[in-house]
Amino acid sequence: MNHNKYKILLIEDEDVIRNGLKLNLEDEGFYVKEYKSAEDFLNHEVHFWENFIYDLAIIDVMLPGKIDGLKLTSQIKSRWDIPIIILTARNRLEQKLEAFEIGADDYITKPFELEELIARVKVKLRKKHRHKIKIGNHLVDFHKQEIINLNTKEIIKLTNKEAGILYLLYENKGKPVSREVILDKLWYGEYPTNRTIDNFILRLRKILEKDLSNPEYIITRHGKGYELSDKIEEIKD
């Protein structure tokens, strides 16, 4: 993944957090533009509505001024389809749901580990810029997190975890990926049971497979994990 071409917008009013994030993201090869408030960003980037140069945004919720992070996220998402990671000290479920409802792609509560945030940034950018793939009669669009049935034109929306699992299998197509690897890559320190992974796989198979008793694309390798068949077609935009 060539990070040099990726531009990140960082809006955070706490100097220590903002400076630390900027330094570490730049060490990873990203270009980072920082602001202390939504008003600061909007005042400096007056062509925001016509030209948005960023590939990803990291936005704090509690910003000084009249425009908080959620309102700014909603404004950006109404015009531009880029991944946005919310930073906040709020950790109640209803607060997280509010963020996701207005379009946030991820939600990280303070205090957080820098390594985890950077890992999530990389995952979001991979999803944004990777190819679509065709699996049988279905087109998988990882950026939009949806699968289109090419026969019926039905669009099936995927959750973050479903899209993440499918892309992880795609990255390793032709070889098995263990449940432990899936948990480590996608659950960020949470520890659900292996059965949780099986349920996600079943949901994906119900969408993609003609015969659940004899799957053609998402194959079980007993004792090794799950494998995506190499019988897929990569679609370049």
Query: Which CATH top level class of the largest domain fits?
Result: Alpha Beta
Total count of helical runs of at least 4 residues: 8
Shape: elongated
Say what the CATH topology of the largest domain is: Rossmann fold
Give the overall pLDDT as a whole number: 87
The SSE string, one letter per element, is EHEHEHEHEHEEEEHHHEEE
End-to-end distance: 18 Å
The CATH architecture name of the largest domain reads 3-Layer(aba) Sandwich
Whole-number tally of structural domains: 2
Question: What characterizes the major β-sheet?
Answer: 5 strands, parallel
From the alpha-carbon coordinates, what is the Rg to the nearest angstrom? 19 Å
List keywords for this structure.
237 residues, alpha/beta, Rossmann fold, Arc Repressor Mutant, subunit A, 2 domains, five-stranded parallel beta sheet, five-stranded antiparallel beta sheet, 12 strands, 21% strand
Structural write-up:
By secondary structure, this protein is an alpha/beta fold. The chain has two domains: 3-128, Response regulator (Rossmann fold, 3-Layer(aba) Sandwich); 131-235, Winged helix-like DNA-binding domain superfamily/Winged helix DNA-binding domain (Arc Repressor Mutant, subunit A, Orthogonal Bundle). 38% of the residues lie in helices and 21% in strands. The chain has helices at residues 15-27, 38-44, 69-79, 93-101, 114-129, 160-171, 179-186, 194-208, and strands at 7-11, 31-35, 56-60, 84-88, 106-109, 132-135, 138-141, 146-149, 155-157, 218-221, 225-228, 233-235. The strands form three sheets. Strands 2-1-3-4-5 form a five-stranded parallel β-sheet, sandwiched between helices. The chain has a five-stranded antiparallel β-sheet with strand order 9-8-7-6-12, with no helix packed on it. A two-stranded antiparallel ribbon has the order 10-11. A hairpin with a 3-residue loop joins strand 10 (218-221) and strand 11 (225-228). Helix 6 crosses helix 8 (194-208).
